[in-house]
Amino acid sequence: MNRFSDIDCSFKRLTPVYGFRVAKLVSIEEALQSVESQIDELPYFIKIAKRHCHYPSEHGLTHDESASIYIYTMEWGDQTLYRVLNQTLRNENRHLLKVWFPYLKLFDTALNKLPSVKEVVWRGIIADIGKNFTKNQIITWWSINSCSSSVNIIKGFLGNEKNSTTFLIEAVKGKKVSGYTEYESEDEIILRMGTEFRVKSNALDHPNGSYLVHLIEIDDEYNHTTLASSINQMHLTTNQISSKSKFNKWKQNAITVAGGNGQGRQLNQLNYPLGIFIDEKKNIFVAGNESDDIVEWKYNAKEGQIIAGGNGYGNRMDQLNWPTNVIVDPQSHSIIIAEFWNSRVIQWLNQNQQILIDNIDCYGLAMDKHGFLYVSDRYKDEVRRWKIDEYNNEGIVVAGGNGEGNQLNQLHSPGFIFVDEDQSVYVSDRSNYRVMKWRKDAKAGIVVAGGHGHGGDLNQLSYPQGVIVDDLGQIYVADRGNRRVMRWCDEKEEGEVVVGGNGEGDQPNQLDGPEGLSFDDEGNLYVADSNNHRIQKFEIIL
Question: Which parts of the chain are NHL repeats (predicted)?
Fold first, then answer.
């Protein structure tokens, strides 16, 4: 096996890998120190990589960044780095990946500096797996994917073997690593881990038992932009915009009320905001993806102020590490924070901290009118409820808890949650592309948004995130991959676009990676526009 044939054939549905983004950027020696026990003589191969890698780099890569690419392409046997890493990336136990995060951070930083390519690339494997690919099927390759821009390179690896499968891939955001690899003549293009594809058509089978599979890369969670369908996309986008209800209640051009000054850590900036909370004074509390703090933006303020954390990434009581959500307890006025990377829910009150719940891969938070706290667990695929001030127990499962899956009693990577007046729990079932409603004491949920596969039609969702419900029971969903916010009314077969849905961009009517949602007491809609590093306020039309 070689890099070009190291292909995931399992069609597993796994949790995406993103924790490495908050890892500290270190030297390649430090980055791989934690995996030395998995790879014999690894320090020796690191020295080889640093000696022979492409440095200085015309693309601005550091010596360590260049070496991280070179060592990935080296071959030295069964314990070759890329084989061990890719096996781990395909493993269902995502906790095994934590030791790889420093290297993945270094490797990903290097790729970011290299040119992106939009062209046809090739892969191949000596196995007749092509018959398993069907038209319009959505697949994910969880490992790092080495491709070649030359079909002859792939033919050379496959030889005259029968029962092989060749992949023709329309790449959208490939990274050209040719010139940085051990084998410079292989014209290598890398597609990042977790890249999604749509199968263009049923596999072409040859008389000798070989197959040709045509894949189209799904561009950054937005499944309509491809080399082959740009004209169709223009038509589809127009249809989506014109399909918006004439009863839309919000101005389509938003006002930026927090951030909007580029990505960064200055007080007038945000860094991939996720969860947001709006209090009765219209103050905005923001939890950020790649941050170590919670920031409060007072009403009409030009910059925020750090109210929790801000003392560097870590697991001390006064530190935060990748907070995903924040709520304010109306009784104690304390701040409750979901810390995904530290696997804990922590309470801050006047700079005093208390861990409420530990050893939980928390993501979403909600509190009902009775003071019960609800927390979604990304890896256990469940939502649990705790009684106020009684956190020294395992809580009660109120949604999911039956393993990963897409049945009505299951969840897959649950994210944001919302609890209504009747204690029904709404869950963004992210990797099932749906929102589920679990009534109080129910043994299974019902699909209330999406549930028709991954896509951009009005009855579909693409990686739903924030979810809130208004007084009429209408459900609002941050449809992250489709860059829009959808409204789903009771018993309707499809939703309607209420804001966004105007393509990728940073204009006032555009969103890029919407995450958390919230209303203020006037009904204005707030959206954490994550990839634009800002909070957008869409004013209600009275």
Answer: 452-485, 505-541
The Cα–Cα gap between 201 and 228 comes to 12
Q: Does 152 have pLDDT greater than 80? A: yes
Which has more confidence, 495 or 225? 495
Comparing 408 with 236, which gets the higher pLDDT? 408
> May I ask the CATH class of domain 3-218?
alpha beta
Q: Taking a C-beta distance cutoff of 8 angstroms, is the pair 352, 301 a contact?
A: no
Which contiguous run of DSSP H or E holds residue 125?
A: strand 120-125
DSSP secondary structure of 418-453? EE-TT--EEEEEGGGTEEEEE-TT-SS-EEEEE-S-
Question: What is the model's pLDDT at position 407?
Answer: 96
Q: Answer whether 490's CB lies under 8 Å from 472's CB.
A: no
> Residue 70 is inside which H or E element, if any?
helix 63-73
DSSP-derived letter for residue 39 is: S
Q: Are 459 and 498 within 8 A, CB to CB?
A: no
Count of residues for the chain? 542
* Sequence-separated (6 or more) residues with CB below 8 Å from residue 454: 138, 196, 223, 433, 460, 461, 462, 481
Question: Where do the domains of the chain lie?
Answer: 3-218, 241-538
Confidence grade of residue 289 (pLDDT, cut at 50, 70, 90): low
Among all chains, which residue has been given the structure tokens 């829009």? 484
Please give the structure tokens belonging to residue 148: 């070649």
Strand boundaries in 298-372, DSSP class E:
305-309, 323-328, 335-339, 344-349, 352-358, 362-367
